[in-house]
Amino acid sequence: SASLVLFDVGTLTLTQYILLDPILLFFMLASFVGICKFRSYTLYEFSVNWWFWLIFTGITMACCVCVKFVGLFQVTFIGLMTIADLWFILGKLSKPISYTVKHFIARFVCLIILPLLVYVGFFYIHLFILNKSGNGDGFYSSAFQSKLQGNSLHNASMPKDVSFGAIITLKNHRTGGGYLHSHWHLYPENVGAKQQQITTYAHKDENNRWLVKFYNDDEKISINDTVRFLKHGDMIRLEHVPTRRNLHSHREPAPITRKHYQVTGYGENGTGDYNDVWKVFVDGGSDGNIVSAVTSKIKLVHVLQHCVLTTSNKQLPKWAFEQHEVTCSPNLRDTNSYWNVEDNINPKLPNVSFEVYSPNFFARFIESHAVMFQGNAGLKPKEGEVTSKPWQWPINYKV
């Protein structure tokens, strides 16, 4: 059997690629060997070898999950074997109940507590070593990014509160949410109004920047003006800095989520119409509460259409570079409608350090898993990509 595994064409092929499957296969086989060896010591319960193979099984089982979440199937398999063993132990009526309890505690510690500690320990090392900024930063919350060296939020100093005249970036507050984004490209024909596209984008670039303006065009922001902070209940316009078009919505249906309204970039040189006006609401806030960078969760409600700026988390076609759809939802309780200000640039205000908002290890541990689960759920074939069904794999069926 060892020769079959060693010379199996599939296994040999996998080892030629930088894939996790050979490593996963190693730990799966190791944990299987461990549980088999452990069960072979039934007559030598609680001996040194008995404990060794039980601990070995727990560690290798944890390593399966550390490599890939598919390793949970191995955990299930070993768990079922353990339940069967405990059932037979419970059936030994000649033994006292303390005998069963000792077996249960031994397995609970070695096959549940120990693997959890190993798994969390590996993630602690993972997050400690991988502490540099990269292209995937935008998938994580602003607070998480503040722990990444090289990220604009690491040891960041910026104004604590948001004011009119500030240049900001808005990040969707849901797990893995992107930045409110626009670019010069327009929506194509038959996709609502042929105006500038508004999307969410997971990566940082200049096209994520917005200028906070007064809702009334008669009020202009001057360098000499005193700073006026953005507060709960204020009405604003958001001007896209690179293109100078305002964030806008109207009663045209959204590109994919047809029950929502389309969100576009509209106007010239910052001048648009009253469909550019949004009202700011701070989550849990009241009149007079100032919007703070990073920490405040805000909603932007369209004044005329009475809808809330949100993202559907649906991927747009290639004409929008497969970025994610932004809409205006008539459901003001939309769970994806919360945003937070990440970058906050205003030379009139003093900068403060955001180190105090850095999350602890367990907060980052939970968030990283939420992002991974969401990323796995979002793995879908791209437009025009050849796909196959599972039943086609064993027979190598090709369309």
TrEMBL record:
Coiled coil: none
GO cellular component: endoplasmic reticulum membrane
Record EC number: 2.4.1.109
GO molecular function, one term: dolichyl-phosphate-mannose-protein mannosyltransferase activity
Domain called MIR: residue spans: 159-215, 227-283, 288-344
Ranges annotated as spanning the membrane: 17-38, 50-70, 76-93, 105-125
Enzyme class, UniProt record, top EC level: transferase
Cellular compartment(s): Endoplasmic reticulum membrane
Major localisation: endoplasmic reticulum
Oligomeric and partner information: Interacts with Rt/POMT1.
Name listed for the protein in its UniProt record: Protein O-mannosyl-transferase 2
Name of the gene this protein is made from: tw_0
